[in-house]
């Protein structure tokens, strides 16, 4: 039955676990297949051609498990290769974190000044600004690439002095633009949310697109009749392309739960 089929989620590394966590909270009875491309992380500094190839590979791995939906838990892929994912997924619905995050930010802002932080590829694509302006052309968007946040998150430097130093370097300028809303335009960034909030100031609304994705997922599965109502909770099936032991350590640190099996796959 379609209700029993898993939700497929992929990201360049561990960042997509923020989406896994949000989906588990909103849809506790759904089975999740997660692929983290830990062999090729980070995607942000790569060329568009390479990112599009990686996106195709990532979907191919998830499609082996016959998912009922694909969630692109990578803003870089959402910005530069969502069409590749949609084509490779066939008739299966696809949700990208970028559009969901943009919609939530537009609803949240009160003064029409939104900040966006993301990888170099996401910021250079201007995809967030375009998505936000399609919804409200009056909004001013200021963007900042924060490339070192991904390796800091991957290393588990959640509250490290180096992370605080880098956060001050990245966020001081963006805070001068009078923003009242900040989009975490990379799914790795919520792992560092506490440091980001402390640096940017607690009066600014932080937009974690994972929450918006979870709401959209619930909506689509309800509309299609594919929501799983069986009263059971299963651990996600985790796939990685490299370093399963390191992934296990970060998973336990971030998810605060026992570790399911981690399967090593080739890309």
In short:
The chain contains 12 helices and 10 strands.
Q: If you had to describe this structure to a student in words, what would you say it looks like?
A:
The protein is α/β, with parallel strands linked by helices and 267 residues long. The protein has twelve helices and ten strands. It has helices at 17-26, 48-63, 75-80, 82-89, 97-108, 120-125, 127-135, 149-154, 161-174, 193-200, 209-224, 244-255; strands spanning 7-11, 32-36, 69-72, 94-96, 113-118, 140-145, 181-185, 205-208, 237-240, 262-264. Strands 4-3-1-2-9-10 form a six-stranded parallel sheet, with helices on both faces. Strand 1 (7-11), helix 1 (17-26) and strand 2 (32-36) form a beta-alpha-beta unit. The radius of gyration is 17 Å and the shape is globular. It starts with 6 loop residues before the first strand and ends with a strand.
Main sheet specs: 6 strands, parallel
Strand ordering within the main sheet: 4-3-1-2-9-10
In whole angstroms, how far apart are the ends? 29 Å
User: What radius of gyration results from the CA coordinates?
Assistant: 17 Å
Helix content: 40-55%
Globally, the shape reads globular
Q: What's the rounded overall pLDDT mean?
A: 93
Strand content is 15-25%
Structural class: alpha/beta
In total, the number of strands is: 10
Number of helices: 12
Give the topology string: H per helix, E per strand.
EHEHEHHEHEHHEHHEHEHEHE
Q: Low-confidence stretches at least 5 residues in length (pLDDT < 50)?
A: none
């Amino acid at each position: 039955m379609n209700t029993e089929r898993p939700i497929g989620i992929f990201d360049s590394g561990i960042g997509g676990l923020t989406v896994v966590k949000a989906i588990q909270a909103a849809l506790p009875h759904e089975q999740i297949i997660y692929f983290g491309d830990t062999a090729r992380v980070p995607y942000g500094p790569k060329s568009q051609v390479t990112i599009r190839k990686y996106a195709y590979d990532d979907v191919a791995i998830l499609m082996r498990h016959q998912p009922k939906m694909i969630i692109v838990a990578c803003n870089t892929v959402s910005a530069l290769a969502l069409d590749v994912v949609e084509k490779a997924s066939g008739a299966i619905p696809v949700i990208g974190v970028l559009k969901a995050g943009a919609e939530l930010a537009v609803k949240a802002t009160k003064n029409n000044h939104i900040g966006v932080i993301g990888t170099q590829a996401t910021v250079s694509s201007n995809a967030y600004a375009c998505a936000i302006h399609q919804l409200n052309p009056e909004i001013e968007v200021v963007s900042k690439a924060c490339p070192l946040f991904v390796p800091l998150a991957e290393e588990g430097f959640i509250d490290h002095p180096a992370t605080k130093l880098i956060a001050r370097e990245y966020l001081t300028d963006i805070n001068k633009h009078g923003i009242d809303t900040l989009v975490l335009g990379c799914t790795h960034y919520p792992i560092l949310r506490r440091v980001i909030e402390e640096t940017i100031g607690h009066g600014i609304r932080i937009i974690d697109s994972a929450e918006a994705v979870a709401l959209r997922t619930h909506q689509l599965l309800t509309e299609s009749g594919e929501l799983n109502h069986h009263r059971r909770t299963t651990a996600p099936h985790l796939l990685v392309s490299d370093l399963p032991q390191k992934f296990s350590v970060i998973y336990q640190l971030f998810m605060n739960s026992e570790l399911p099996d981690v399967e090593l796959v080739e890309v």
